[in-house]
Amino acid sequence: MDQITLRQINKRFGNTAVLQDVTLSVEPSTFLALLGPSGCGKTTLLRLIAGLERPTSGEIEIAGRVVAGPDHWVETEARKLGMVFQSYALWPHMSVAENVGFGLSVRGMHGRERAARVEAALAMVGLEGLGSRRPPELSGGQRQRTALARCLVTEPELILLDEPLANLDPHLRESMQAEFRRIHRKTGTTFVFVTHDQAEAMALADRVAVMNAGRIEQLGTPQELYGQPATRMVAEFFGKGVVLPVDVAARLDDRTRRVSLGGVTLDLPGVAAVGAAQLSLRPENVVPAAAGLRPHLVGRVVDTSFRGADHLVTLALEQFGGKTIGLGMAAAPEPGARVDLAVTGGWVLPA
Predict the structure, then answer these.
(1) Where mainly found (predicted)?
(2) Are 34 and 215 in contact, with CB atoms under 8 Å apart?
């Protein structure tokens, strides 16, 4: 039985269609990222699952129970879920322990049992000994851990997170990513989190739903979305790289296509039909061409930046109107220098 099932979900605000025919199944213990640009509908979808909004049409099931549909509505507090907000939503006048235990108090749990559950939740998120502090006395990371502990203490079947790391600095963000992964492994709870940061989605999730204009463009593992994007939008939004036009001359087998790239013939993995198609290239799919051989692509250096182990060299591709791709190089060429490139991989997708 799936933890979450969405069937043909539509949501409109007045005349604006925010979600369109969204269908999605999430297995128990999944860490799912809803990823997409601002305005794509990912937060609205999360709010529908939480019961903070009603769908215009369609049906939502949580753990096999219909919680939203034409003839069904289950309030948020009865959906057995927890939610972590970007703003933390902590009561400033309450201590950490009181914030964490608030949901238990509402359910009528008090005394030693409540205290033990709160203590265990604080230990789970690494906040032992801080129960007496108040939110203003905590760092950003500690506030986020408090909000997560408040979810965990009620032992929900599902935890929803709305851009929970957006307010943290890069160092704290990496630390909390590791914390989320550890807690997910330990509890086995289903996590669904919203983010616009593809690096964050790759670091945390085992499944990613890329959203665009109110629809799910592609659902898969981070590895599938990175290496085998289904659409141009996914190829450009998920991971760094460039998408170039190609012509598929022949289908060599189920997963290999012979393509023409700027007049050069290459055999590359992909699923596009014969005819006009697109080639998704990641930085690791291009290397400097060997001397004396015809290059597949010709780039001009437009920018360089030192990364420690190497230099990130941004190249404008001459045959493709100046589209750019980044390449790691040991030494940084001068701006304007020509760099001949060989294509070693990629993914051929439909036009």
Answers:
(1) membrane
(2) no
